[in-house]
Amino acid sequence: MEQDNSSPVSPNAHGESQFYMTDIVVERTDIMDGDMTFQNLAELWVFGLPGSSGAKGFALPEVSPGVWKMAESIELCGDVDGIDCVVKGNEGEDIGFMHLDGTKLRTATLQLKQGPRRTLKSFDFDGVHFTLSFDMAEIPPEAISAANDLPLMLDVSSIEQAVLAQERLSDVILEDHNDLLGRFSYLRLGAGFSDRPSPSGDDISHLANTISTLQRFWEHPPVGHSKGPTPLTGCRSQLGSVLSDTDESHATPQEVVKPPPKDNEHIPGLITSLGALFAEHFERRGDYSDFAEAIPVVHRAVKLAPENHSDLPFLLSTLGRLLQARFKKSRVLPDISQSITAHQRAVSLTPEGDEDLPELLTRLGSSFEDRFAHTNNHSDIADAIEVQRRAVDLTPEGHPDLPWRINNLGSAFQCRFDHIGELSDSYVAVTTFQKAVELAPEGHTRLPHLLHDLGYSLQARFRRTGALSDISQSLTALHKAVQLTPVGHADLPTRLQSLETSYKLGSEHAGPRRPFYCDLSDISDLVTALREAVSLTPDGHRSLPFILSALGHSLRHRFDNTGEYSDIREALLAQQRAVSITPEGHADLPGRLYNLGDIFALRFEHSGEVSGIDDAIAALQKVIQLTPEGHVDLPGCHKHLGDVLKTRFDSRGNRRDLDESISHYKYAATSPHSSRTIILSAGSQWVALLCHDNPRSPDILHALGPIVDTFVLMTGLEKAVQGRYAVLQEIQMLLPSAVSFACSLDRPDRALEWLEQGRCRVWSQLNNLRTPLDELSIHHPELAHRIADTATRLESSGFSQESTHITVSEMEKPSAENYTSGYAALGSEWEGLLKTVGAIPGFEHFLKPVPCSTILQHLPDLGPVVIINVDDVRCDALALLAGLDEPLHIPLPNFSLKKAKRYRRQLNSQLRAHVPRARGEEANTASDGNFTARGAGPIVKGGTVDVLRRLGSEVVKPILDMLAISVNPSSGKVPPRIWWCPTGELSFLPLHAAGLYGESESDSVMDYVVSSYTPTITALTDRVKNNLPIDESVAGLFLTSQPNAPGRSPIPGTTNEVKSIHAMAKAKEIRVLMHEGADIAVDDCVKHMQDFSSVHLACHASQKADNPLQSRFFLHNGSLDLATVLQWQLKNADLAFLSACETSTGEEKLPDEAVHLAAGMLAAGYRRVVGTMWSIGDRVAQEVANDFYEYLWRHKGDGSDGRFDGSLSAYALHHAIQQLRLRQDSADKSEQSLLTWIPYVHFGY
């Protein structure tokens, strides 16, 4: 048979689409046992093509074992009904035959914009099965009609289209080769390929074909055009000399710039197109030899281009990208440095206003970022951020590349966070990525990439903060990124791996078998998509193990939410297959083994299959063996192995399993590479097992140390106040448990240290920010100034009304000045300053947690301080007395957390029945001003009296007995003072009123002591230590009544209350100022509180449970909230009398944070505060206030003149309450009577 070797492509018929068979592959698809017949297929012969009298033969070189690939494409013209194909063997024998219907192929072919369509045909020969596959693509006539239309090709949506068009053009140009170089320089393929995401089904063979096409123009003259010199042959001669000169492949761009030849101005662009194609070929195939060809080619292009050549910036940018790509594989530093140099020169040659400048800046920033990641030179990442920000600033709104450039800016911040750890960078990165996603419309080609970067950034921040919202949002973003990524896409494995990691982190945070992401529709959609992806992905494809692993993880997660056991079985099969096709030594093998071990353990837990637990342990042990020390995932592996060993110990009782489990938990809890979540979970398990094995083991305290330290770190100043409160709600039970263990081991000193370190975190941090810097100022004034300045900014920012979500307007570009990231930066700056001070001799303990001995140094002389820890295991009191060098440990065996909760429920029930919701609800009060008979009656069993009696016998009496405090009615002396510091549920119970109240007898704590409360021990000792006299110029009392605040019930008694106090003050010649109702604005109220040492607020107040910082006082002209109060620094503040409701109630979700108005006034600077635990009656409030001030001024010291002194305020309140009790008891002894005086409490010194 005669073979026709003419061109396989017919001339273009203008006005008609051209259809091509491309990427033609023959593959042996039966099971190969290594002894293959027909290993050397030779040719594909095609019959029926127009212009051919016989068959056209095409070489079939073997590209891999059992795979043969044709380099050429075949055009199916409109008049071709069908073709016959014969596959020939190495000796010319016929191996296979098939007929292809041309009409059907053309009809079924998708338009160019939708990409080529893959077609498969099978045939057998002598028991061996082969498949012929090819792509069908259509090129519309407008894409190839004229040279002037070529710039349109820049806008095609896929690599395949551009390459196919170029392949077609190469043949058309054979007839009009004079325009060849101009047309290729217009295409600038290197500028666009790696910037466009790869569509589904793209193949590197197209690039190989394109490279071959270009090379053929100068390697072989076109048939029919070999006679005589032509522009093409001249160009080919020049290119030949250029391409042969490769000795400067590592020279800098400046060194290779020499005068270009004058023969053809298009040569640099043509060479660069070829070089960029080599680079693109590498990016898709991974063949390092492509760089060896590409970089010298583009170097020569730069050398040939004149300084003013319009394409020189593009040539330099292409060179920079090639060098950067080679650096990512070689890690040779000169490559990335030369890349930066090339990009810098490209930018410098591009004028302001040029539309290419933002893209050139983006590439320069990317190279800076890569060099920083390699060298950790901080100036590089600063340059990267600056350059990327400039690229964003130069990109107009609505530009299609704006989301991508914003994303690149976020990437630079994320890179800095990953390497340096500044949390503020993470906040900026997340916000920036969010903005990029927001601006990218649905269907944007880079949306999956943007979503992945956002998901990864949230994941990274979660590792640092432990905020569950971050990992949930990460999963949402990564879910969508994976769903939008086609099967076979080069980035699919990376996105699947990120999704798996977020699943894993979320599971670790939530704890064993606790669902943390419950959108079942999302999970089920992902499972369905991954199942389809598995079915479509051939064996041996690099993406298959990633897809299988992700499928297994998704099924496992769905099981956590549904309990459907079939998901476990399918997940196990998927993970086993993923492991089986992952070779030994592969970087992803440990992660896949971890997933497999997890599924084995889950199967054992739910089916009891004995082999499952052993298989799980074996898999996890191998994970640890394969994971290098210092790897971020290693602590989590140890923790999980500890879990599984503990499960087997519980099942079989093998002592070795217990010991190994303890060892793995210990590693996870103490590793410097552990996340905070891992430390807390592993540490808690470590403690539990130690207690199980030996409740008196000294190792228990060692295990508790990392837990408490992490508890403190998780509520650090990198978060604003509301963020710290959110974290505390999740982990607050850790602290009382640790303290309980310390008490059980007879270590009250450690218990006290932990209580002070972990309780009232916000108040303690605020106190630290206001620490006097006198001594530091003497030795290091500049450092002291920096600390003071940072403290002021932190305090102002931290207590402002921050938003929970940062938004960036359409006109804004992301910046570091947004609230959240700015606050995080201040927090990091503060921690850095503390480390600097701590390194100075003599300041090693500056603002660090203080030891027990220091806490005990400045206790008040007037009485003991008692802190009570309430845990579900045990309850203990620690009594602190001046002169003792350690706390007095008082166990409370008859009290428990369960009882505290029950007593609180009982008390709340009584309050609902007998107490109005707010002061002044006169519909609920009798004519004498007391509460009405609504619910009133005699003392009943199980009510308030029962709660007070049990508190007295189970809590207060054991403490007073141990302190040897008794009643001596004949002495006539005022009882000693005592400061209560309750924790947990006990914070909501009235210890100051505990005791026995009956019809005929009474034995109240008020008969023994004068009670005060303190949020922390340090809050009290600091007042004792710094008890400076009040400045005489501000000593005095500011009074305000607010009887008719809008939206609140009238409280007319406040007017009489304030007027009465004002009259007494005037009579005693006390400096006093009074304002009523509408005649004072909120700002004026604040000013007067700064001008007077003491304040009396007679008004409504409210505790806001969902946002404690919004708890407030209601004035006629506005409200005064706790967040505002906390921003004050009242250095001469003395007493605050809060004659309002619920000013010391606290927040039930944060019992140890004292989040109430009374504690806020202490934090603002007041030394003592009178508040209320619940609502008070209008008439009662007047009586208590009058008795209080009458006692205070009657007992003021000699020589005080007209100055106001609140130092006796605790005694004054004690006296006023006793007077109220006498009046109430003479009238009745009902539940209601008790509830009128119990709410009053005294805080502070």
Automatic annotation (TrEMBL):
<dbReference type="InterPro" id="IPR011990">
    <property type="entry name" value="TPR-like_helical_dom_sf"/>
</dbReference>
<feature type="region of interest" description="Disordered">
    <location>
        <begin position="238"/>
        <end position="265"/>
    </location>
</feature>
<feature type="domain" description="CHAT">
    <location>
        <begin position="947"/>
        <end position="1244"/>
    </location>
</feature>
<protein>
    <submittedName>
        <fullName>CHAT domain-containing protein</fullName>
    </submittedName>
</protein>
<dbReference type="Pfam" id="PF12770">
    <property type="entry name" value="CHAT"/>
</dbReference>
<dbReference type="InterPro" id="IPR024983">
    <property type="entry name" value="CHAT_dom"/>
</dbReference>
